[in-house]
Design goal:
The structure is a single chain. This protein has 14 helices and no strands. The protein is mostly helical. The chain has one domain. α3 packs antiparallel against α10 and α4 packs across α8.
């Protein structure tokens, strides 16, 4: 087997591994609040989240296009760059999962892609600075701020509407409403996060087809699994389905450390709080997906929970833990870049020694 085909197979395997890890790493995004408020049992919540994550993955491919062609120059990217990007993201995801920190899988992948691509090119010429700033850097800072303040305002509005209602009665009613909000949150997570792996796999397929002269012949196999060069960054339907299924299975595996952090450690939630946080986060994420912005679903739901919790009283949020979460947010891209760049440097030395 030739090296480039072997690397493509590795890219697909590790991309799906990243998707699976993303599923259980970010399962908390969709179900932490609904478990914390006891609206659903953990088993039922995970199944509910997994199914809606799966269906959300079919909600367009604009984010996949951003990942595959909007951050680095796809024409100069190699299979080795993509593989190292995935390894860097997977390693950082596993570290933060082990520590129970809800960091961003999206930013880990973006950081890995940047680190490996920059090391490959020997500089920043390969980076699409405008795309990086507009689609990654600005949303990285604005989306959690929006999550906090919109969550705060939505919760204030709900408190104003139900000011004279009996709290326990309202919370019983909001358990039903939270089923809807948790479902929309799970759907929105699948719509944004699953597309990132679709973009990576499609980039790998495009790279292989370009270097080996593989022609899109319109056959059933090509239609399902090969990108159509006549379309603008076309994600094959087979890639969409496989990524959706893998993310759903990953979500079904759960991510109990992070669920516990978001659902219980940041603040104790009632159903009305969970509804406000999930509705806020889902609205922001679906808007970002529509415009092809690969946001951190983790950051948005975390900040929405903080905003909602602040309406109880500012001290109700455990700000010491929030500081640890913020540190993980800030460090994710640079550390993922460093890990991926180091892996690429090591692999390039190994390939050179083997005569490739």
């Amino acid at each position: 087997m030739e090296l480039t085909l072997f690397l493509l197979i590795l890219v697909i395997i590790f991309a799906l591994a990243f998707e699976y890890i993303n599923g259980f790493h970010d399962a908390a995004n969709a179900i932490a609040t609904v478990v914390s408020t006891k609206t659903l049992s953990p088993k039922h919540a995970i199944l509910y989240g997994a199914v809606l994550n799966f269906f959300g993955a079919f909600f367009g491919t604009c984010v996949a296009k951003t990942i595959g062609s909007g951050i680095v120059d796809s024409g100069t990217v190699t299979q080795a760059v993509i593989l190292c990007a995935l390894l860097g993201a997977i390693i950082w995801n596993l570290i933060t999962w082990f520590l129970g920190l809800p960091s961003s899988s999206s930013h880990a992948l973006i950081g890995g892609l940047l680190g490996a691509a920059i090391m490959h090119a020997g500089g920043f010429s390969i980076v699409n600075i405008q795309g990086l700033v507009q689609k990654v850097v600005i949303p990285m800072f604005t989306s959690p701020v929006m999550g906090y303040f919109v969550g705060f305002l939505v919760m204030l509005l709900l408190l104003h509407i139900f000011a004279k209602a009996i709290p326990e009665k309202i919370n019983r009613k909001f358990k039903g409403a939270q089923l809807f909000s948790a479902g929309v949150m799970a759907f929105s997570h699948g719509s944004n996060d699953a597309q990132k792996t679709m973009g990576i796999i499609t980039l790998g397929l495009l790279t292989y087809c370009a270097t080996h002269g593989v022609v899109f012949d319109g056959s059933t196999f090509a239609t399902l699994f090969l990108p159509d060069p006549s379309k603008d960054f076309h994600v094959p339907p087979g890639v969409i389905f496989i990524c959706a299924l893998t993310m759903g299975l990953g979500t079904a595996a759960g991510g109990w450390k992070i669920i516990h952090t978001l659902g219980n450690k940041v603040i104790k939630l009632k159903p009305i709080h969970g509804f406000a946080a999930e509705t806020t986060a889902a609205g922001i994420i679906l808007t970002a997906t529509h415009f092809g912005i690969p946001v951190s679903t983790t950051q948005i739901i975390s900040s929405a929970i903080m905003g909602v919790g602040s309406t109880i009283r500012f001290s109700a949020v455990k700000w010491g833990l929030v500081g640890n979460i913020l540190a993980a947010w800030i460090l994710t891209i640079p550390i993922s870049m460093f890990i991926a760049a180091g892996i690429y440097w090591t692999l390039s030395k190994a390939f050179h020694a083997l005569g490739y």
